[in-house]
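Cross-check.
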Amino acid sequence: MPIITLTTDFGEKDHFAGAIKGAIYSELPEVKIVDISHSISPFNIAEAAYIIQNAYSSFPKGTIHVIGIDSEINPENKHIAVELDDHYFICANNGIMSMIANEIAHSKLVEINIHDKIETSFPVLDVFVKVACHIARGGTLEVVGKAIDKIKPIKNLVPYVNEEQTQIIGSIIYIDNYGNVVTNIKKNFFETLQKGRSYEVSARNYKFKKIYTKYSDIVNFDTPEDKRNDEGRGLVVFNSSNYLEIAIYKSNNQTVGSASSLMGLGLRDTVTINFFK
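Predicted model, tokenized:
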């Protein structure tokens, strides 16, 4: 029996996440359910896309991922089921899948068409659960939907590069639990354009001339510990997902602050990299 994961913006207060689990267990008592996150910012497609992209591959092949973000069906927001990288994804066709699909081609993609058999105002519970359980029993995507060609993209998913290739203009797509801000600039994208040139990373009035490999690289461990003053210093790293991230060393919103709070950086804010000869 495969694993079913849940990623939603439902939070922990309301009944929604619990109701979904109950409905799955009612159909498949032996299934394993894993919560990836129920704390996605409401209707934040880019945040959900970032989290699911970086979580799904840790699960076994054949895992079924139910993603409940902005899932109310309408003429511009259809429901899809996707087989990609030997995993299954059930969500709205609103851009959530575009980060993964931008790097890995899907094997199968269908637009779910079982809505005429289900009356619902809660599609994650009534539609996505039905599809997930169908797949978990060994059912095929063709039974629950019609084949389509394209996954809807997220606008501005890829950073802008000027004609001279001397500047990358990216944007902040995610703020993590530490207040670190993650951009849409990936390491391989940066390295392809850098070509050995020096550079400067800019966000608001803050400028950085070095991108670190890990957070602790900012520390000079030759300096005695009682003489260091590294906590609260700003830095830029490529994080574990290979996205450019602006961080505060050992950040804590309650004490030293974070990149988001101290630098005034928020979602969709611009981050620029300028290259120099």
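The two ends are 56 Å apart (CA to CA). The mean pLDDT is 91. Passed to J.P. for a second look.
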